[in-house]
């Protein structure tokens, strides 16, 4: 029994020595497999991180795009609210239309809007925005219409000075920021800063709508008339929506076309 215990203890010592000697060899044998597994896990983790990063970038891009759309919708909502608020004084029907195209050439300043004969739009119908008068419809198609802006060289708008009622005709110049008021005598009571509103004469434009603000008054004693210029208050270059106004029924508007032409200088359509 003692001999067996002695031998087992001796074998255990030998086994321990052999294990210690063999361990580096086993480690070296297992090293490639361990390194390969570590590299595989590292690459897999890195690939997962790259995919997650790309996914997050795509989501951020999508959210940014949606945020821009929300900003655009908020701005559009504000413009529409302003248009509706501007229609409070209009006694009859109104309709919002979008601008489809804009022609701001010096010799022709016109816009195409998204409403036409199917929406009861008629020639001579005024269009406004939240700030004031923009122009009038000159051509009607079934689904769209063409409107001439008040700055068109062939357009003339009956106005009056809001301060004292002095009447005048605001003529388009082909420039989006300038109107001319010809044939005003030197002694006319008009000053820089005066607000010009539609007079309502001729029956085409509703009275009392802001049209322009006087920017220049030059009185030359050697000339019979003063040089007067004004800037439109309507957002002619930045408007995205306009408001169509039914001040009179289309039949009445057509019957007053000649009277409007005589007053405004615009040929009746």
* Strand residue content: 25-35%
The total number of structural domains is 2
Arithmetic mean pLDDT: 77
Our measurement of the CA-to-CA distance between the termini, rounded to an integer number of angstroms, reads 131 Å
CATH class of the largest domain, named Mainly Beta
Q: Count the beta strands.
A: 13
- CATH fold descriptor of the largest domain: Thrombin, subunit H
- In order across it, which strands form the biggest sheet? 1-2-5-4-3-13
| Helix content class | 25-40%
Write the layout of secondary structure elements.
Blueprint: H1 2-86, E1 94-105, E2 108-113, E3 126-128, E4 133-140, E5 145-149, E6 156-161, E7 167-172, E8 179-180, E9 184-185, E10 195-198, E11 210-218, E12 225-232, E13 241-245, H2 250-255, H3 257-264
Search tags:
alpha+beta, single chain, six-stranded antiparallel barrel, 2 domains, 269 residues, six-stranded antiparallel β-barrel, disordered C terminus, rod-shaped, Thrombin, subunit H, 13 strands
């Amino acid at each position: 029994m003692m001999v067996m215990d002695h031998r087992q203890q001796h074998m255990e010592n030998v086994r321990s020595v052999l294990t210690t000697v063999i361990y580096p060899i086993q480690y070296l044998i297992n090293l490639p497999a361990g390194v390969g597994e570590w590299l595989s896990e590292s690459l897999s983790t890195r690939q997962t991180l790259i995919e997650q990063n790309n996914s997050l970038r795509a989501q951020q891009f999508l959210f940014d795009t949606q945020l821009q759309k929300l900003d655009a919708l908020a701005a559009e909502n504000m413009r529409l609210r302003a248009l509706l608020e501007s229609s409070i004084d209009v006694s009859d029907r109104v309709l919002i239309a979008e601008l489809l195209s804009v022609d701001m050439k010096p010799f022709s300043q016109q816009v195409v809007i998204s409403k036409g004969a199917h929406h009861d739009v008629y020639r001579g119908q005024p269009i406004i925005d939240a700030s004031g008068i923009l122009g009038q419809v000159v051509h009607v198609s079934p689904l769209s219409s063409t409107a001439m802006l008040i700055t068109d060289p062939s357009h003339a708008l009956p106005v009056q000075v809001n301060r004292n009622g002095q009447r005048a005709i605001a003529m388009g110049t082909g420039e989006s920021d300038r109107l001319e008021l010809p044939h005003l005598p030197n002694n006319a009571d008009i000053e820089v800063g005066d607000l010009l509103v539609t007079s309502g004469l001729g029956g085409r434009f509703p009275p009392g709508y802001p049209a322009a603000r006087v920017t220049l008054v030059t009185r030359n004693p050697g000339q019979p008339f003063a040089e007067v210029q004004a800037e439109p208050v309507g957002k002619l270059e930045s408007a995205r929506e306009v408001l169509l106004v039914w001040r009179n029924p289309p039949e009445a508007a057509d019957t007053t076309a000649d009277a409007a032409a005589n007053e405004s200088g615009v040929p009746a359509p």
